[in-house]
Amino acid sequence: MEDALAVRRVDRLGMVLVAGGILAAALMPFIIVKANRIAAGKPQLLTQLLAQPAALALLALLVATALAALFLRNQIVRLGIATLAIALLIVTLGLVSTTATPVGSTVARITPGGAFWALLAVIGLVISDALVKLQLTPWLRVASLALYAAILGVILRSGLLDNLSIMKEYSNNADKFWNEALGHVILSLGSVAIAILLALPLGIFCYWQPRLRAVVLRGLSLVQTIPSLALFGILMLPLGYIATHVPFAAAIGIQGIGIAPALVALVIYSLLPIVANTVVGLTGVDPSVRDAAAGMGLTRRQILTGIDLPLAFPVILTGIRIVLVQAIGLVTVAALIGGGGFGLFIFQGIGQTANDLVLLGAVPTVFLAFSSAVILDAVIDSIRGQSA
C-alpha cells in the first residue's frame, strides 16, 4: 500500500513538473531571429506570435497536454494529445520561422529558442510516461519509434522547416552530411563488431579462470578512466610510428590520425562492458542445468555453445547495447583527430561560433543513440520473454 502511494506521489510530482515546464516555456523565446548565422538574435516569445493561427492552436493544445498530464488517467488519450502537441509544436516552429524570415533574404537565420526545446522535452516526457504505462510489447515500442520518426520525416519532406537555420546548414552541407552520417554509423558499428569478437572470448576465459578474472577486469576498468581525447592522442604516436616504418600498414590506411586511432580507441573502450556482462551472464546460469547437461554426456564446449551462451545472451546483449550507445557518442569526439562523423559539424560549428552547425551534428547523434537503445532494448526484452 505504501509503495503504491509512493508511486502515485512520484507520478503526480512528475506531471506537476511537466505542467510547470510548459508554463515556464512561455517566459523563454520560442524563436530567435538573426540577421546572419553568427549575429546576435532578436528573441520572440510564443505569446508574441499568437496572431498566427498555428501558434494560437499550439498554445491551446499545450494547455490540454498539461491538463491531461495532471488529471487524465486514460493513457491512450493522454498519448494521443501529447503526440498531436509535439507534431503541432514542430509544424508551428516551421510556420513562424517562414513568417519571420525577411522576404528575399538568403543570409537570415531563424533558430529555435529555449521555449521550443523546453516544450519538446516536457511533451516528450509525457509521451514516454504514457508509453511506459501502456506496457507495450517490445516490438510495439519499436513501431512507436518508427511512427514518430515517420511523422518527423513527413514534416521535413514537406519543406515546412526549410527556413530554419539548421535546415539551411543542412542544405549547404547535404552531400557532406550523408557521407559523414555513413562514416559515423560504420565506425560505430565496426568498432562494436570488433569489440564483440575480442571481448566475448575474453569474457568466457575470465569466467573459466576466476583467478585471472579480477586482473583482467581491473585492467579494463583502468582503461575506462582515461579521457577519450587523451586516449586518441596517446594512440596517435604508436600508430604514426607503425605507418612510417611498415609500408603495408600505411597502405591499408593505418595512420597517426584519422580512422585508425579512432577505431582502436573505440574498441578499447568497448571491451569492459562486454567482458563484464559475459562473465555476469555465464555466472548467472543455473549450475543444475550444466550438471544435467554434463550427465547427458555433453562436452564443455557443447555446454558452452548449447546452454551457457544462449541463457546468458540477454545479459551479454545488454553490455553490447551499452557499448553501442557509448560508441555513437564517442565517434563525435573522434572528429578532432580526423575520424569524421557528425562530430565534424559540431567542432566546425564551435570554431565558427555557428550554433546551428553544432546542432546539425548533435541532433542526429542523439537520435541515432536513442534509436539504437530502443531497438536493442526491444530485442533484449523479446529474448527474455521467450526464455521466461
In short:
With 388 residues, this protein is mainly alpha-helical. The chain has helices spanning 2-24, 53-71, 75-100, 114-134, 138-158, 165-172, 174-208, 210-224, 228-245, 247-251, 259-283, 287-295, 300-334, 343-351, 355-387, and strands at 29-34, 42-45, 109-112.
Which class best fits the helix and strand makeup? mainly alpha
Question: Mind telling me the C-alpha Rg?
Answer: 25 Å
Tell me the helix content: over 70%
Low-confidence stretches: 1-7
Helix/strand layout:
Elements (H helix, E strand, L loop, with lengths): L1 H23 L4 E6 L7 E4 L7 H19 L3 H26 L8 E4 L1 H21 L3 H21 L6 H8 L1 H35 L1 H15 L3 H18 L1 H5 L7 H25 L3 H9 L4 H35 L8 H9 L3 H33 L1
Antiparallel strand pairs: 1-2, 1-3
Helix pairs in contact: 1-2, 1-4, 2-3, 3-4, 3-5, 5-15, 6-15, 7-8, 7-11, 7-13, 8-11, 9-11, 11-13, 12-13, 13-15, 14-15
